[in-house]
Specification:
The chain has helices at about 10-15, 55-65, 80-90, 135-145, 175-180, 210-215, 235-245, 250-260, 305-310, 315-325, 330-340, 400-420; strands at about 50, 95-100, 105-110, 130, 165, 170, 285, 290-295, 310, 340-345, 350-355, 360, 365-370, 375, 380-385, 390-395. It is α+β, with helices and mostly antiparallel strands and about 425 residues long.
């Protein structure tokens, strides 16, 4: 396969988009993007124009858009119309959403096509890479260890990983576990410094220590506890902490403590070397400088590791966040700590960050909780409310315009407000 040079905006900055932050090279509008904040057969890479090319297949996909318990009547459906709208208006190749109303009625909706240049429909509730949603799973494991009195939230990282964090303004004796999970540690963001210059680099394997070393070569962003800045490095350290305390791999701990406990059937943490998405899934794309889309469905997600490596379906994400907020994954005391939030910067107005969990205001009133994530190929957004509503949406490319970036979060807000 020929190697295309991928610009920092589309690879290095796309990596940084785990955070859904305004990152170097990303559109300025990322500042208002919400950080709800990474395949059976290998699909060949193929570039396609950014504009929507899916009109015939989109009709087919929409005709197959089923909801568990939803009929095929002619009643106006603002949520389905909204999903179709972001594909038609913002040029996403495909989109898939899961919407849960109070009482548990769930609808799984799709729009667009699963693969550009084909008429293949987006699989209903298909698997996607979920990027930084991984952080919430890892935070749950850490907080379970807190409940088991194996970790103390306000203890220094040095207690568990002696000598690991040293650098210019960086000292593990002064950074607490809470500050890692809350992004108040001041650790530099390793995804700002990864050397991913070519398409072939998306298949490179990174050890967790490679990611940490990339960060520690740079100075601290601020003194611990004095500010807030989203850094994927925090969750690499959290993953290493889990492994040190438990003596077991983070993949195993997330699987046994969270995925299995929550009853998630289509969610997994890919093992070392696995580049494919296991079950039915739409292809994922990344925009190139030319405006065309590069197929990046298959890649090595190791540079996400505990910050963004996982795969799930939209309905599984709803089930996970609902179980979490209903207290099924940790004791009440630890959930209360998780929901203690601080003010954020570079996010949507009113958004606040807890311990791997984010709250954001809805236009119809009240708060939603979630996380979200970006990884080359997929962007996921969503939220759950205290009264039982839940929405997750995934689109099959990273955004290249402000309108695309804002449109997905606007859909989440609309869907939560329209769902009763």
């Amino acid at each position: 396969m020929s190697v295309r040079r991928l610009s920092g905006r589309h690879v290095a900055a796309a990596v940084t988009a785990f955070a859904l932050l305004a990152a170097a090279g990303q559109p300025a509008a990322a500042a208002v993007r919400h950080p709800l904040a990474q395949p059976p057969s290998v699909q060949p890479s193929q570039s396609q124009p950014l504009q929507n090319q899916s009109t015939p297949a989109q009709s087919q996909a929409q005709a197959q858009a089923q909801a568990r318990g939803q009929g095929q009547g002619a009643v106006k459906d603002p949520v389905l119309d909204g999903l179709r709208g972001i594909v038609a208006e913002d040029g996403w190749p495909g989109a898939l959403a899961s919407v849960e109303a109070r009482g548990g009625r769930t609808r799984d909706l799709v729009a667009g096509v699963a693969q550009l240049g084909t008429h293949r429909a987006v699989p209903v509730d298909g698997q996607v890479r979920i990027g930084s949603n991984t952080k919430t799973f890892v935070s749950v494991v850490v907080l379970q260890l807190v409940a088991e009195k194996k970790v103390v939230l306000d203890a220094p990282v040095e207690t568990y990983l002696p000598g690991l964090l040293r650098g210019d303004g960086i000292d593990g004796r002064k950074i607490t576990v809470r500050q890692l999970l809350q992004h108040t540690s001041g650790l530099p963001n390793y995804t700002d410094y990864l050397a991913l210059e070519n398409e072939s680099d998306l298949h490179r394997y990174f050890e967790p220590r490679d990611l940490l070393d990339a960060a520690l070569a740079h100075p601290a962003v601020f003194a611990p506890g004095t500010s807030w800045s989203y850094s994927n490095t925090n969750y690499v350290v959290a993953g290493l902490l889990v492994e040190k305390v438990t003596g077991r791999p983070i993949i195993e701990q997330v699987t046994e403590r969270v995925i299995e406990r929550a009853g998630l059937k289509h969610t997994y943490f890919p093992p070392v070397g696995e580049e494919v998405i296991r079950e039915r899934h739409p292809n994922g794309y990344t925009p190139e400088d030319s405006g065309k889309l590069l197929d990046v469905t298959d890649l090595d997600p190791s540079w996400g590791w505990a910050a963004g490596q996982m795969v799930a379906t939209p309905s599984d994400l709803n089930e996970f966040f609902t179980a979490l907020l209903n207290g099924k994954l940790m004791p009440a005391a630890q959930l209360a700590e998780m929901k203690k939030t601080v003010e954020t910067t570079d996010f949507i107005p009113g958004a606040r960050y807890g311990l791997g969990l984010m709250s954001f205001p809805l236009t119809c009133g009240g708060l939603a909780w979630g996380h979200g994530g970006d990884i080359p190929g997929y962007e996921t957004r969503g939220g759950v409310t205290g009264d039982g509503r839940a929405v997750q949406v995934a689109v099959t490319s990273l955004p290249s315009t402000e309108e695309q970036a804002n449109g997905v979060m606007e859909f989440v807000d609309m869907a939560l407000c329209a769902t009763k």
